[in-house]
Structures are given as structure tokens and as C-alpha cells.
Amino acid sequence: MSYFQSKQLTSDSLQTVRNRVEELLKKEGFGVLTEIDIQATMKKKLDKDYEPFVILGACNPVFADKVLQIDPQIATLLPCNVVIREIEPGKYDVSVMDPSTAMGVVNNPEIGKFASEVREKLMNVLNGLN
User: What is the pTM of this model?
Assistant: First the structure.
């Protein structure tokens, strides 16, 4: 089992892909809590050039609440990361973490059940991209 799932697609910009990803996340009950702009950060900190590359910290508050009630330390594994990066001009890779794999380290079947449900929702996001 992989720790992520991904899909590649063509688009005119990272922002267009991001808008679609956020729309699909919202449809599945997620919001974006955080953003890390890898391209800007690496340029600023290391003076290295990266293609457009962002990490979105997506959270479904209903599921976050459920797992936090079981184990507050599970917060170390939240939120669910969604990565959008340009792999060549006009071609983008969208990757989502696999919550089942990430939460599997906790070894709690109750949390595992919720992780599987979140995985299904994140896969719906990937499958909705075209």
C-alpha cells in the first residue's frame, strides 16, 4: 500500500488546478487550513528554483473531531496533505496522502475505520479531476 495516491492532468496554470481541487475538497466536506508554497519558500530560504509547487493542509472537521475524541495525539497526523506541483509546462501532478497508511501507525481499528472513510473522500477528489 502506498502512502499517497496521485493523478496527472493538463491545465493552463497551477491556480486553475488548485481552484478545481479546492472545489472538490469542499464538496467532500474539507476546507484548506494551511498552505505551504514550496516554490517561494525554497527560493527565499535556499535560493533554489522550483517549478510551481504547493502543499495544501486539508481538513474535514467532522472526521478530525471523531479521531481527536478517540486520541488527541492523532493531531500530529493532521491535516491531510494535498500536493499540487507542475511537472512540466502545462502538466500537473496532484497527490493526496493516504490516511489509512498514515493512521495505520496508530494501530487502532476505530481510527482505521475513519481513516478509510477519509481516504475514500480524498480519492473522490482525485477521481473528480479531469
Answer: 0.94
| pLDDT 10s digits, 15-63 | 999 999 999 999 999 999 999 999 999 999 999 999 999 999 999 999 9
C-alpha cell belonging to residue 108: 487502532
**Residue carrying the nine cell digits 491535516:** 79
Condensed to tens digits (0 to 9), the pLDDT of residues 62-102 reads 999 999 999 999 999 999 999 999 999 999 999 999 999 99
Residue 38 burial (10 A CB sphere; 0-12, 13-18, 19+): middle
Closest to 124 in 3D by CA, of 54, 23, 32: 23
Count Cβ atoms within 10 A of the Cβ of residue 53 and give its class: 0-12 exposed, 13-18 middle, 19 or more buried: buried
DSSP string over 53-114: EEEEEEE-HHHHHHHHHH-GGGGGG-SEEEEEEEEETTEEEEEEE-HHHHHHTT--HHHHHH
